[in-house]
């Protein structure tokens, strides 16, 4: 593949809140990964008017999510004010609540730049540094969240990357993410730990629950749909408080198009999560099989058929164990999951003795380690279920 060296100018990220100092609980991960109880001690949601920058971006951004060719020479505009509030686009079950896309994404999300509580070989950038490093912006009709793929042997804490969380929190609703590209690498994903997930901070993690929508490490070819809760929540898939919430309960999505390079090869697709008092369900739709009602902006899960994964039953009071969730996208390297299982992955361990040494010495392998998000849409019954966040979260997991 030929990589472009086009110059790209980033615009302004609007209205990002000031940073704060706090303790941040360790991010949980599925049962096959060990857990660390270490916590970070700082976080920052940067603010400022961002200057232009120039950088190389992957040539895969030359094609938009609809397949229409466009130049890798791109201008990243200042996000307009989010005008999705009060929209009356409804169907029998849901009302559109929020739309995060190229008109509004960076108005509704903030950057985390504290230490990684999962001990990853990663340096999460604030908004200003993400801008000057060309790791965040708008490209090919989508929201670009990237990772550094040029720096050889970056200093501690590790390779530059981005993680963002929604300023609003949500309790129940329908969450639909149209994603054109997710992080992968030229070496089977080795070293990567990307995630699209939601969690609540109320009462300290995991008392308000966590929903992992997309998550995997290293040479994984599919994602795992996982829940983490406090004690007293079990489904047929297991105890969601297993390992004090660190293990959780999960369902592997056995579809090679659902994750990583397989997902990117088909132009991505749509992940939808319906969260009600009775069930938390997930659907994955490849790009060529997205339901017409989603495309039309009037989604109706009742018409989608069986969910790709679902948790329901009398063993868990969902309303008690899940509330006040932020939406999160991040790309981690190594750490307490990808790093710990490195030696057991024959594909990856053949590349280097440790995950961190491989990630440090092979920046070019991570040109594909980026999210390209067409939109995230939140639908709520009768328009309820959200809380405006005006400050950096006090308990921000990484």
Number of domain modules: 1
- Head-to-tail CA distance between termini: 32 Å
Kindly state the mean pLDDT as a whole number? 80
Give a count of the beta strands, DSSP E runs of length 2 or more: 23
Q: Please report the first level of CATH classification, the CATH class.
A: Mainly Beta
The total count of helices amounts to 8
Major sheet characteristics: 8 strands, antiparallel
Radius of gyration over alpha carbons?
Answer: 19 Å
Task: Note the main attributes of this structure.
disordered N terminus, single chain, 7-stranded antiparallel sheet, mainly beta, endo-1,3(4)-beta-glucanase activity, globular, 29% strand, disordered C terminus, 398 residues
Any overview of this molecule?
By secondary structure, this protein is mainly β. It has a single domain (20-387), classed as Jelly Rolls (Sandwich). Helix content is 10%, strand content 29%. It contains eight helices and 23 strands. The strands form six sheets. Strands 3, 6, 7, 11, 18, 19, 20 and 22 form an eight-stranded antiparallel sheet that branches. Strands 4-9-21-12-13-14-17 form a seven-stranded antiparallel sheet. A hairpin with a 2-residue loop joins β6 and β7. It starts with 19 loop residues before the first strand and ends in an 11-residue tail after the last strand. 56% of the residues are buried. Mean pLDDT is 80; it is low at 1-55, 62-91 and 388-398.
